[in-house]
Amino acid sequence: MRPAVVLFSGGLDSSTCLAIAREEGFSPHALAVRYGQRHEHELKAAERVAQALSAPLRVVSLDLRAIGGSALTADIEVPKDAPIGGSIPVTYVPARNTVLLALALGYAETLGAEDLYIGVNAIDYSGYPDCRPAFIEAFEKLANVATAAAVEGRARYRIHAPLLRSTKAQIIERGIRLGVPYALTHSCYDPDAQGRACGRCDSCRLRAKGFGDAGVQDPTVYSPR
User: Fold this and answer.
1) CATH number of 110's domain
2) Contacts by 210-216 with C-beta closer than 8 Å and gap 24+?
3) What is the 8-class DSSP label of residue 93?
4) Quick one: pLDDT at residue 142?
5) pLDDT digits (tens, 9 = 90+) for 48-102
6) Residue 24, Cα to own-chain centre: how many angstroms?
7) Does a structural domain hold residue 225?
8) For residue 7, what is the DSSP state?
9) Is residue 221, in this structure, part of any structural domain at all?
10) Domain-embedded: residue 99
11) Residue 37 belongs to a domain
12) Predicted local distance difference test score (pLDDT) of residue 89
């Protein structure tokens, strides 16, 4: 099986993406990033899910709090019960997916992998610019001019975004068929000290709606607050 790098947060989408990579014939290597995110609890979920799906997990660290500019990396309140869609919300982390995919690309080059998976979605999402098809297409072009392996003809990089045009319900339905352990995943932007979901941020609400639309019991543990 050929190796592939899966950008991995331990959330609903990236966990489904990991299972899809395996279904499509790859040996997935999960890459999680500790970037100073408010919801660092997701990294514990990443460990749980990677272990359950028997995928090797690499965790790298960098400090996007040094840049700030987001409710996830600065002392800015996470919006609750706000309208989803329209303007880009303050939970957008400046250039996050560009930075994280660059790390995944570097990891892929060291592994000899030519395929990168990312669980971005442009249907049921908060409107982040780095979750759109144009971003994926542009980064794939960049990958093939920015690496020694590509320039020397040893690799042709492909960015896979299999969830890009799926609803949350469709993602969940596909993940269940593939055996994704959604009870182990974490999506909340503002969990409590025990890692329980707030139920009110964009990510929580999109996740809950997905389970409801799919007719599947939501396994998320919510904070009583």
Assistant:
1) 3.40.50.620
2) 210/12, 210/124, 210/167, 210/168, 210/169, 210/171, 210/172, 211/169, 211/172, 213/167, 213/168, 213/169, 214/168, 214/169, 214/170, 214/172, 214/173, 214/176, 216/172, 216/173, 216/176
3) P
4) 98
5) 999 999 999 999 999 999 999 999 999 999 999 988 877 899 999 999 999 999 9
6) 18
7) no
8) E
9) no
10) yes
11) yes
12) 93
Amino acid present at 74:
A
Token code pair at residue 29: 């290597």
Q: Could you identify the residue written with the tokens 């025990």?
A: 194
The identity of residue 173, as a single letter, is E
Structurally, how many domains does the chain consist of?
1
Number of Cβ atoms within 10 Å of the Cβ of 209 = 16
Nearest to 60 by CA among 42, 43, 82: 43
Confidence bin at 126 (pLDDT 50/70/90): confident
Residue 124's domain comprises 2-214
pTM of the model as a whole: 0.96
Q: In the numeric block, which tokens belong to residue 27?
A: 């040996």
* Tens of pLDDT, residues 144-172: 999 999 999 999 999 999 999 999 999 99
DSSP three-state, residue 4: strand
What distance in Å separates the CA atoms of residue 73 and residue 92, rounded to the nearest whole number? 10
> What 3 state SS string does 149-194 have?
HHHCCCCCCEEECCCCCCCHHHHHHHHHHCCCCHHHCCCCCCCCCC
